[in-house]
Amino acid sequence: MAATDDLSWQRFYHGTKSDLKPGDLMEPGHPPNFGKRDRATSYVYLTGTLDAAAWGAELALGEGPGRIYIVEPTGPIMDDPNLTDKKYPGNPTKSCRSGDRVSMRRRRPTGRHDRKGNEMGT
Fold first, then answer.
1. CA–CA separation, 42 vs 21, rounded Å?
2. Which of 26, 51, 75, 88 has the highest Cβ tally under 10 A?
3. How many domains does the chain have?
4. 73 touches 22 (CB < 8 A)
5. Local mean pLDDT, 10-residue blocks, the chain (122 residues)
6. Nearest to 13 by CA among 95, 86, 119, 80
7. Which domain holds residue 18?
8. Distance CA 87, CA 81 (A)
């Protein structure tokens, strides 16, 4: 699986319930937002679509509203094989992952609401 080198054309999002500030760095090695939390992640996940980020924010474990952030990878990224090879061939969600840090640039207001009626991304 090859890394993507030219990121200048792409805007990336990250959906979570974490309350981040501009400049915060997300890095691998923490419990995941999904599934079993008794392990550390090897990657930070990001997406090129707002819908996939909203899905990630809504499904993330934790308290508080889902939040969507515009993020910037600090190193190489690659397609997420857990989605692109297994569930969604062709990568329609533009799902990627990075073994390096990902910098939070700003929160993305969406005007969208989760299933509980909480506004996401504000």
1. 22
2. 26
3. 1
4. no
5. 52 91 93 78 91 89 88 92 71 88 86 56 48
6. 95
7. 12-106
8. 9
